[in-house]
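Reviewer 2 asked us to include a model.

Predict the structure of this chain.
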Amino acid sequence: MSMLQVDIRLPELQTLARDLGLEPGGPAQQHLVGNIARRITKYVPKRTYSSVENAIAQGQEPKNGRIVIRGPHIKYLYFGKVMVGRAPKRATNRDLRYTTTYNRLAGPYWDMRLMAAEGEQILADEKRFILQGGR
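Predicted model (structure tokens):
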């Protein structure tokens, strides 16, 4: 009886991840952060000076895989609750009424609403980016 033995050597997982741009802070992660930062602006409230959108643009940390939005009013806008009192303010049970003149999708919990509405498209964009070699 004859026997055939085949050795299959796969590249190391870390090398494969790096070649695909999947390492922490790599091209895929940077693309994802930029894509989300661009898309999330439809869900944030906007006034004439676009303070939240500017905070999103300034808070992108693609190499860390996050967007940090800074500002004294960001927290209450995100949670959508009226805040009262002196700093540090406390939340009430009253909902904020968002101006939807500029962004008709404006409301609370921007990230969750973005992923519920556009999560499949974001994943498809990221998959396409990775499979095209980071282009």
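Residues 110-131 form the longest helix (22 residues). The beta strands are 60-61, 66-67, 81-84, 90-95. We have added this to the supplementary material.
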